[in-house]
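Continuing the series of single-chain predictions for the mutant panel. This is the parent chain; the variants come on the following pages.
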Amino acid sequence: MGGRDGGLTGNGRMGRIGRPGGLPLFGQCWGGYHPPMARRSRWIFALSVLVPSALIAGCSGSPAKPTPPSVSSSAPSSANTPPVVASLTAQGTRRAEPPDLADINEELVVTASVTDVETPVDRLIFEWSSPVGSFTGQGPTVRWRAPANVPSPLVASLRLVVVDGDQRVERTLAVRVHHHVREVGDMATLFLSDFSNSSTPVSTVMRNFLPGCYGTADEQNDVEIVRRNYLHVSTRLDPPVVTVDFEGRCPYQNRAGDACSVSFVRWETRKIPSGEREVVEGHDQVAAVYRQDRWWLCDSRWDGRLVTGSGALHRLLTGPPH
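Parent structure:
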């Protein structure tokens, strides 16, 4: 059959489908065109295949946009806050011993006061270290032993790192390490040596006495009297015996002190200007106190006897308690 607009070709293939006005069907809405009845059966088959696609493409308007996936709005978990080290202290075992003070080879109890918002203290990691001495134990309370020998008073740095996951908090503590017996004994010996040398000024003799301590002013007065009235000829001074007892008492005349040094001394003197010879011997007791991060002398008392002479110097030295 001859092909016309709106028909089929003779070999059964579908020709160009049109509608009035020559507008193509596909991509447009169907405009009410009715094919001839004789061809309706063929049209029905073709339209059953083509029309749904055409209508979907041309008449449905803009295609529906896909619904975006929902996003969870749940709040993230709270961050891990660092531990808080409220305090760090070291305490020796002597009665009334000041904190953060150690004698050589003394063991101190070191305590950290730590809190953490999320983590129990027993689940935190405590890392203790120091360039000197040694630690024993673990956790917030440990023991630290001071070094056995120090050349002079030493400041030891005790370091603590508290670890909670990715959080690390560091704190350090300065502990003063002293050789109590040696330091007090050396100061007492130096004082007595200076006192025994008549050419040593009073200010030098008194340089290690704590200003304002209960016996300092009276001792300076005694030294000044001796300088004006006596000349030291010879001296025997034995090594001291030192005891440490914080807030304790020195035995002779019950003198207060944190440490006591006792030395045997023998003095030979000449009275000025008469030249009268006098010899005394006995024990000199020196009381010391720990103040301002160091040892100081505070008082000196003579517990001796007259060997020869008038006894004037002996009476001066053994006068009533200051």
